[in-house]
Amino acid sequence: MKHREILAYAIRAYGEQRQIDKAVEEMAELTAALLHYRERGGSADPVREEIADVGIMLDQLTLIFGGVDPFRERKISRLRERLG
Ligand SMILES: [Mg+2]
């Protein structure tokens, strides 16, 4: 099974609402890992692990909500303009 198929299967198996809740939970874990790293340093592996978790959940949110690409393109364009 491909990455996208596994994620689509997870959404079907657990339901959209549960995966949205899971995304919120994983983003909170990444926030905590980043704050811990910024304030106390140490290994970056906990940050990397939470980045992976959030990435997986963002991919699922993208499948659930769709229509993300035009927003991403607009924001990247604006960033490019600001950078000159
Ligand atoms: Mg996590």
Bound molecules: magnesium ion
Radius of gyration: 16 Å
Provide the β-strand percentage band.
under 5%
Shape: flat
Share of helical residues: over 70%
Uncertain residue ranges = none
Please identify the structural class as seen in this structure.
mainly alpha
Per DSSP, the total helix count is 4
Largest sheet: none
The figure for the number of domains is: 1
Number of strands: 0
Spatial separation of the terminal alpha carbons: 42 Å
Outline:
The chain is an all-alpha fold. The chain has helices at residues 3-14, 16-40, 45-65, 69-83. The protein has four helices and no strands.
Features:
flat, single chain, 84 residues, mainly alpha, 87% helix, binds magnesium ion
Account of the 3D structure:
Helix 1 (3-14) packs across helix 2 (16-40), helix 1 packs across helix 3 and helix 2 packs antiparallel against helix 3 (45-65). The protein contains four helices and no strands. The protein is flat. Helices cover 87% and strands 0% of the residues. The chain is an all-alpha fold. The protein has one domain (3-83). The protein has helices spanning 3-14, 16-40, 45-65, 69-83. The longest helix is centred in the middle third of the chain and has 25 residues, at 16-40. Bound molecules: magnesium ion. The site of magnesium ion (MG) has 4 residues, from helix 2 and helix 3.
